[in-house]
Structures
1.
Amino acid sequence: MALLELGTLKASEIKKKSLSPFFNIFTSPLKKETLKFLKKTFLKRKVFPALPLILKGGYPDPCLSKNKNYFNIWMENYFDTYINIDIRKLYPRLNILRFQRFISMLSELSGTIINRSQVGRALDLSEVTIKDYLDIANQTFLWRQIPIFSKSKKKSLVKKPKGILRDSGLIHYLLDIKTKEHFLRSPKSGHIFESFVIEELIKGLNSKILGRWTYSYYRTKNGSEIDFILEGDFGLLPIEIKFSSSVENRSLIALHEFIKVHSLPFGVVINNSQQVQILSEKVIQIPVSFI
């Protein structure tokens, strides 16, 4: 028996488009020739603005409504229902007010490595309580915990999990980000973009692949990091996620090193660029709207 998770809408579903051919690469083992396939596949494809989709998220009612006021009304009702009905019913002994403050803080931490002791100090809660709260948020499908890549050949890894709030629209509601301009000015924009891309990738793979696959992230104690790593029968694919529209070579050092150490055919950069571009012999750039 398989467990099917019904998540929020994928961006392509909101745009009424078919699943991106990008996900076809996961149906067979990844190889160097896959780069040429991606370059050719997206040669004449036009990008669409992703920011409006990032701002609204994927909950069907608010993201499809044309009423500008409806988004905040729906999100307020949804969050109130989640906290005061769903959580209260599932965990009757839980301190609801403290948990609500904790979820609000998670909106600021989405896309980052979670230091439970620091979060505990900020909320005047024990590290054990923070761990319990994270488990509750994860088990109720509001939060997604992303484990550390466990097959690394390096020992000096950060052991703390990373996490994201699953819906970017909910993040914006909790952070009170209401406009494109506010989003672009926010110091959280890069992490929110990363959260959005990770969920888009997971939704796409869930739609395309029936077999088992896993995701993780990689970070060493000296700061070398890979934002997202996919692994399955197709092999191992490291992915860097950049909010910018262009990529500097120095920002790819960790990706190149990871590819070399693990003898991989290539890695991917997903960003706000306008076209697919081969950045180096083993790194390809994919615009966010192409996933």
2.
Amino acid sequence: MPLLAERGDFATSRLLVADALIGNVDEVLASSRRFLDAWERSGSRHAPHLAMAAAAVAMVHGLRGDDGARAEWLAIVDGLETAPEQKAGYNRVFDAIVLLHHGLAERALAGLLAEPEEMDERVVWVWRHWYLALRAEAAALTVNPEARHWIAAARAIVAGNPIAGAHLERAEALLDGDRDRMLAAAAFRAAGCRYQWARTLALTDGDHAATGVTALADLGLAPMTEAARLIPAGVPIPPTVSDRVVHEPSLP
């Protein structure tokens, strides 16, 4: 299509979001340059429909531990002039992914406490499953008393979504300290979700954790915080597992 050929920001915007969520870091970095060049050539015009893609790029830089680049892309989100209520859904999801990666589970959970039903349907829409899945994981990592309730309630809502379902399985396994169930959450790899597959392994222990750590490094991402790792199977997770941070990303 001529329009997409002329406007790289339009052409790459949806792909940027998909690649960011599944962990195609190299593709995001390459496409984001085309996106930014095209937007700047257009005169950096008001384009709120492109803000989701810019926020996804910021998330990837957060996972890479590059706070400077993340801040630059968050400034681009602001430059696209999206109203705060319009970006609340994807912002909460992207922020939670970064915070969980860096061991800040309590901060991640704090941003996910609102019930999706209380949010504008136009805001939460496609992000509902990610929102519920990430809330369940943050609750498990902080041993929140609502964790099991949130996991159970989310199962019916995300039924048929293999990625969200795998998130819930992982959250319950984290809560139970069940390494075998963690390793059984193979749907991430089958779905091509490279980041979440690597994160699952890194959250375990022993050789599996080493494989996950290597996979995250191969993706070009910063190491996950040690405090976010699964305690060996059969040992309860203490309530202090959260927010012991090696590197804290800069968040607005």
3.
Amino acid sequence: MLKARNVAVALEEIGIQKKGRTILKDISLEVYEGEVFALLGLEGSGKTNLLKAIMGLNQITEGIKAVSSQLGYVSETRALYDRMTVSEIEALCKGLSREWNQSLFSELLNKIMIDGKSIVGSLSKSKKSLLYITLTLATNPRILLIDEPMEGLDDLTKETLMSLLLSFMEDGKNSLILASRTIVEIAGIIDRFGVLNKGKLIYNGSVDDAIANYCRVRIVPKKLDVEIPNLNGIYGLERDGRSILVRINQDKEEIIDYLRKIPHDFFDVIPLGINDVYKEMLREEMYL
């Protein structure tokens, strides 16, 4: 999906402090035009604060931020006026937006199968979420930020949302930033991702590079007293009787070759999918 390298969002060593507490520290990353970037992390890791910093809703206390084009933001709460009809919400948003695209809104509203006469409060949580995103897309953003895109959605709505997002990315000039606690449901559309932990960026790179670097090795040495050295690239060892599980995050092939030379009764290299790699990245922080 990555078609261009023009920078849409650039962050250089930005930080945020609130009431003397560090919320974000030394965050540097770039998001390109035509790119889907995922911002991953557990609850409280700083994802929402970073999205709000990009939007200008959080004051950056250090570092530099640059944004190339119009932003759109879909918050995790997806708050709308429940007593209004869909048409009334549409008129309100239209009046507030200089770039409102009426034909796009009508097209998307038909796609998500919501009647303009419907009372917003009568819609399901999934339908409200789709309506919120549709309203945001109709403001014609070039850079769209969505906090927890799949939160609370049923399977059919997730498919519809994916269709909306892929349509948004079709021209190769828009950018999409998805903040999520999980990667499994968005892994198929992202180009690169970053992982936040306690306000710090612990990974920033491609899905392919992450998968290429991480694996686990299970080895049962012939001798009970075998010690695995603290090699660069090994970040965790777990023993279970004679069995040793080795966690690897770089120099994978070299470490596997080294371990294979240890006399053993059993040896297995365990490849990891992107969901397991993400979990390993979070687990890795526990070993540091």
4.
Amino acid sequence: MAEEEDPPKDRDEPRPNPNTMPTSFLGVEKVDFEYVNTLVHQEGAPDHIDLLVNVPLADGSVAETKVVIGSPVKFLRRDGRNEYSNKVDSRLTVTQTQRKATGRVDVQNRDGLWWELPVGYPGAWTVLLEHEPKVKEFLGSRFGPGKVFVDVGANVGAYSLRALSRGTKVYPFEPNPENVKLLKRNAEINHLTIDVQECALSSSEGTANLSQNGATSRISDLKGVTVPLRTLDSLDLQQADLLKVDVEGHELEVFKGARKTLARCHPDIMVEMHHWIGAEAEAALFNILLENGYRFEYLDSYSQGRHLVAHYEKAA
């Protein structure tokens, strides 16, 4: 009986020359790696290769991702020829939180979330919430599954995204287009989905002029951008457990347009009261709260005003 012939060995098979390979191989177009992303690190291992790459994002920044290419596994075909298979593991969703910003952007982590702070952007640092610990504690202690948070003056998402990450349903209102872009960007890098109401809340529907200045943008007569106005009552919310209002002096108008919501939902309230609104406007806001069964107190004070918190007291 004749001995069975050994299959061809690896060393007898010609190896392809990468410099002479065609641009199309087995029907698959060849793509130069540097056109897809930029290799920043490569580490060899006996059974696999780790690639750490920068993936370009739509806004011009990049996100790190780890790609693991396993060593080829050889299979022996019935005709005696060798066949190879590679396993590729890409983990963009895991490592994107380790992203590195490009350009003049700082990235910091607070409360388990990542925050972009564009250099020179007015008030971007406020997203870290190091300047108002009592407000952060008051609002944060009320976030959780099953809760509804109305964030009027959401800015770049400091409270909305913290609430969302803890299972709270959020209604964020922010009229400044530049703030909205950064809010959505902060949501993106934390893998959160948020529906921003791109308007200002007031006492009536219509439009108004917004003076853009980052975290301190405000409704005013100064030159700015025209933004839509809505009332909180127009949403006809059936549940609102927590209401934050920080709109740089437009607070009274917000509450004028929220009377039905307060009477129906009785949310806990935190409102930033600026000194420049004057005693008359402050008293009018107090009256709206009292008319709806609220008791209130100042939580703290700072150079430009105070933070007021209010709780609904059930009628006897």
